[in-house]
Amino acid sequence: MAPTTCFNCKEARAVIIRPKNRHKLCRTCFLEVFETEVHETIIGTNLFCPGERVAIGASGGKDSTVLAAVLKTLNERYGYGLDLCLLSIDEGIRGYRDDSLETVKRNAVQYDMPLEILGYGELYGWTMDQVVAQIGKKGNCTYCGVFRRQALDRGAAKLGIKHVVTGHNADDVAETVMMNLLRADLPRLSRGTSIVTESGASDIKRSKPLKYAYEKEIVLYAHHRQLDYFSTECIYSPEAFRGSARTLIKDLEKIRPSSILDIVKSGEDMAALVPQEVNQSGKKCGSTAAAEDDVGGCGSQNGRTSGGEMAAMEKELAENESAESRETEIRLPKGQPLNVSQQKVVKKQTLGHCERCGYLSSQRICKACNLLDGLNRNRPKTAIEVSVGMEDEESSSTLMRQMERTQLTNS
Ligand SMILES: Nc1ncnc2c1ncn2[C@@H]1O[C@H](COP(=O)(O)OP(=O)(O)OP(=O)(O)O)[C@@H](O)[C@H]1O
Questions:
Q1: Is the CB of 63 inside a 6 Å radius of any atom of ligand 1?
Q2: Average pLDDT of the segment spanning 221-236
Q3: Which of 180, 261, 357, 367 is disulfide-compatible with 185, CB 3.0–4.6 A?
Q4: Is the CB of 206 under 6 A from ligand 1?
Q5: 386: which residues sit within 8 A by CB, 6+ positions away?
């Protein structure tokens, strides 16, 4: 069979089937299309100001490595005038983060960017290895996620930087949309879909320039640019709910590759429909929540693909072509109004600062301090129940009461 020519340049031989739209592209065109799309996202959302100092949350994994490489390329190509640096959080996981940080250190040299590393040990007095030794693997991601979000803010503040970019991709955002739909949590859905999560009070803006980039394309980009990244997964346990949302999305993607972007777009459209008062409280506490529950947790929770899976990826895409004919339209029965008791009452939250550490929080004591309380008082179970309950329970007021009780019990 004659080799297929590139859909874009019509000259070179196609070596990539684009996961997003199945266009067959040559290496050069694929890299260019990928970079151009990220550039369009950046320009279309006015993401950066000229001369802005930006910290790239660098884990050494494929997403943040691609983000660093692409931002460096685009900054030079289009003259954004950004002052870029790498910011890494060392969660203290031996045999995982120590190795990935070695990759980040090499990246700092390769991309000629300064690197700042901050550890949970120095920030909280607990490494994740110590947390897991104390509480076991179950629920440890809650600690890690809460601590990391704060740690990135604190790292940026230490550097005097007001903008942190992360490697969250379209798959991550689609997972978050799906999770919040399943939780009927409209304010969080609204916050999770936004490319920028900003907080008037903390002064640190968080954004995800790869918001529309497919994870598979990120892997392809890293592979074809031969980027140096770390692909081992975290040695601690996965978060079940996100993992299930992820599996669901991956299954949908097999039948219909555009599903991921469609879910992201649907999330954006639904976010635009969030009522004003909810949106306002969402915006205010969005700062808090943005700080405390930004999209995605730890990617390693999610069973990520690695750069060595190119062949499997292309085979999977070829199979998808035949799967499309099996697509079915599912209609919901008409005229069944939602029972009032099923409708979620969204309580307005007030933004403030944690009394202990000063971090943004809608609670008197922030999630991280609550978790630390539990650890320090040798009562991890109580703390994690409260924190996980924040995510899963229907009534936030019940949880606030629960939290107050815990604090009373603890003090
Ligand atoms: N230890 C860390 N230090 C700095 N930034 C981090 C760290 N862990 C995660 N991040 C940031 O959060 C983003 C999403 O993290 P997540 O753990 O979901 O990783 P991921 O999707 O596997 O990304 P990556 O491939 O970059 O590790 C990362 O792309 C990175 O920007």
A1: yes
A2: 92
A3: 180
A4: no
A5: 370, 399, 402, 403, 406
